Amino acid sequence: MTTVAVAGGGIGGLAAALALAARGHRVVVCERAAEFVELGAGIQLAPNGMHALHRLGLLDAVREIAVPVPELRFMDGLLDRHVTSVPLDDRYRARFGNPYVVVHRGDLHRLMLRACRDHPGIVLRASCPVVGYSHTGTAVRVRLAHSEHLVADSLVGADGLHSAVRAQLVGDGAPRNAGITVYRSLVPMEHVPPDLRHPAVTWWAGPGRHFVHYPIAGGRLLNLAPSVENQPSEVFSGVPVSPSVVRGQFTGLAETARRLLALGAEWKAWVLVDREPVRTWTDGRVALLGDAAHPMLHYAAQGACLALEDAVVLGEVLDGPAAGFPQRLRHYNTVRAERTAAVHRAARDSIRLWHARDEAASRRNTALAALTADDLYDHLAWLHGVCVPTPATGNMTTSGTRPEAGPGEAGPSEAGSHTLGGYLAPSGVDDTGPAATAPPSGTYTLAGYLE
């Protein structure tokens, strides 16, 4: 039996373990912390992430803990005015194959952890940081802390933003300080006035700052996440901060947004960081996944979704004997690098959308308000959309057209360079919308309307 070591026991690492174990591999997940836990608050799962969860066998369980979102609302935070909404109704679900939901990060992680513990092919090791690796010809010698090691047929670096595996494989130093601080707080819904309880994911846009909120934990909590371009000189993560400091950063926003921010009693702050996209995530039998491979700003709301996509594709690619792992991992790299780089650019580019000032904000509002629901779906298709399923052959194409459909499958249609070979769509889904291709460079988000 082949053995795959996974560095990191977060959402990406556990997803990789499930995908690989489903292909008959023995998987050892090495987590640096003393226990398998996931910190943080709410995350958004677009249909592409839900498709991946379906492939991991977790879709029904996730639906039980998720809050379906009725719309994505864009508000002018200075004018206290609704600009536009993306309706996430039956038409959206029919086009993209699944709902758009929000979940508590810890709830999703616990669900995945249970699935890993229940799988006989997965071994979970806490207090077991991976610090490096070396090749031994037909295997990988995975170096652990305290002079330990294990021998595996492959190593997957899913150890996050400060990945030790990436440090050796890519060696690109510290992450980039984006000059933005995000504050996060969770508010019990019973503390939220009825007129402020909106089930949508809502953005309040203002000059140099914006504020996002949505319900999580089955609607029991309201997740607050305001961001501001305040150019912090040092990077920090999860630092407690007083409510007055947070409110002071957003005094220019209109009354409704300020009332919502005033609900937060316990706040923590993070300086946003990312890294420049790289073309090479593999080294022989070693590959990166999730934030270790493509850390990006969270403004595209795709970090978890992309890690889940990575895991599903990795499982498909490594569905074969260990002798072919180096070549198969290079193919995984090829399949994933362009799409994730496109989302990375979209996340950076979207800052101009959220943080526009003066006349640029007015032009943004006018342009967004003129878009129909179908227009908005078209802009999101490359990001949220996935192709219909194709038989898993292990020979995944990333361009050209979809293969002819087999019995019970949807017919062929155009497919572009980001469709993942159709491997992520659940069986029976007929996405009749445009293929999930990325638009040309420079038009990745609606921020293009500001040019």
Note down, in words, how this protein is organized:
The chain is α+β, with helices and mostly antiparallel strands. Helices cover 31% and strands 24% of the residues. It has 12 helices and 20 strands. It has helices spanning 11-21, 47-55, 59-65, 90-96, 105-118, 164-169, 243-249, 255-262, 303-317, 325-354, 358-369, 373-384, and strands spanning 3-7, 26-30, 42-45, 67-68, 71-76, 81-87, 101-104, 122-125, 130-135, 140-144, 149-152, 154-157, 176-188, 201-206, 209-216, 221-228, 239-241, 267-274, 282-283, 286-288. The strands form 4 sheets. An 8-stranded mixed sheet has the order 6-5-14-15-16-13-18-17, sandwiched between helices. Helix 1 (11-21) runs parallel beside helix 5 and helix 9 runs antiparallel to helix 10 (325-354). The chain starts with a strand and ends in a 67-residue tail after the last helix. Residues 387-445 have low confidence and may be disordered.
Name the shape in a single word. globular
Number of strands: 20
Mean pLDDT: 87
- Cα distance, first to last residue? 55 Å
Structural class: alpha+beta
Q: Describe the largest sheet.
A: 8 strands, mixed
Helix-residue proportion: 25-40%
User: Based on the structure, what is the oligomeric state of the protein chains?
Assistant: single chain
Strand order of the largest sheet: 6-5-14-15-16-13-18-17
Number of helices: 12
**Regions with pLDDT < 50 over 5+ consecutive residues?**
387-445
- Computed CA radius of gyration, to the nearest angstrom: 21 Å
Beta fraction: 15-25%
